[in-house]
Amino acid sequence: MSQVDWLSHLSQMITITGQLEVRCAYGAPWRLAWAQSAAHEIPYHIVLKGRAILEDPETETAKELVGGDIVLLPHGSAHVLHDGSGHAPGLTHERQGSAGWMLSENDSQDEHLDMLCGRFFIGPPHDRLIRNYLPTNLVVRAIDGDGKEGMRSALSHLASLVGLMRMEAVSDRPGGYAILNALSAALFTLVLRAASESEHAPEGLLALAGHPRLAPAISAMFADPARPWKLPDLADLCRMSRATFMRHFQDKLGRSAADLLTDIRMSVAANELKKPAMTTEAVAETVGYQSISAFRRVFADRMGITPGQWRRLAREGQ
Predict the structure, then answer these.
(1) Spatial contact of 10 and 56, defined as CB atoms under 8 Å apart
(2) Cα–Cα distance between 16 and 9 in angstroms, integer?
(3) Measured distance CA(147)–CA(132) in Å, rounded
(4) What domains appear along the chain, each with residue ranges and CATH number?
(5) CA end-to-end span of the chain, whole Å?
(6) For the chain, where are the E strands, in sequence order?
(7) What value does the CA radius of gyration of the chain take, rounded to a whole number of Å?
């Protein structure tokens, strides 16, 4: 099994759509602030040219972004982007592009920034799975400092995707908005792939998937969550002792294998419960529960509502 397996299963499990909202073309000084996003939203920013400082007011941390950097905020955290000069920003001018996104500019001729800003929308209740297992901020570099494509395949694909998004953003051709939104959705998966393949994969699910010895376990759980996986089974897949597997898994993910398996099962169950023909008993069996009462108890504990309540909410939403 490969890393692509788990990522493909995750992408099929959680419905992700993307939307480009603003293209920022600023000269320094400039400053942008984003409030906490809704539970099912993940903001993203792509620095096409120039540099930006990303600040997280809650953790009081700052990170410099340069051309080619892509940042996702899986927890939807409030954040600030600025030029780093400390000077008061000038006035900005916004105008609606015919493609559906906003162009925001200022009049400064100093150090220039070109940046795309948008957000991903996650079909509920899968935002819980994303926020529990991805870091607060996720930054990958699609292009190196000289503007050349990275050597690794994931980075090369990201560079190509960002190039397409840039061309669509600066052009005014029919279908541009739809194309940009479709490319945004692909961006999410490519960023996760690139991050998991990096030498310093961020904490959580990506660090786990990027660990060559632990990757078989995560692929197996995503591919066949209904199977009655036991710790010895997963440890054998990774060619580790049970104690070594538990220690490495907990260290990389911050949670146990049983926690991850349960969350995967409940996400699959949430999708199955939307199907009118599927009874709750059938859904329970589909995700590996022989006891309907046990399934209802775990679903309510993880999702905050009962399977029946979720089914009704999903039906009303549709």
Answers:
(1) no
(2) 13
(3) 34
(4) 3-199 (2.60.120.10), 211-317 (1.10.10.60)
(5) 35
(6) 16-27, 31-34, 41-49, 51-56, 61-66, 69-72, 79-82, 92-96, 102-106, 112-122, 138-141
(7) 21
CA distance 135 to 175: 34
- List of residues 6+ apart from 238 with CB closer than 8 A: 213, 214, 216, 217, 245
Torsion of CA 274, 279, 283, 284, to 10 degrees: 140
pTM metric for this prediction? 0.86
Mean pLDDT score, 206-211: 86
Q: Kindly compute the dihedral angle of the four CA atoms of residues 181, 184, 188, 193, in this order, to the nearest 10 degrees.
A: 130
Tokens 């959680």 belong to residue: 14
Give 1-38 pLDDT, tens digit per residue: 444 478 888 888 888 888 889 999 999 999 999 999 99
Beta-bridged to residue 270, according to DSSP, are none
Cα dihedral across residues 314, 78, 104, 72: positive or negative: negative
Nearest to 209 by CA among 188, 238, 229, 170: 238
Contact 208, 249 (CB under 8 A): yes
Dmax (CA) of the chain: 67
Measured between alpha carbons, how far is 296 from 305 in angstroms, rounded to an integer?
A: 9
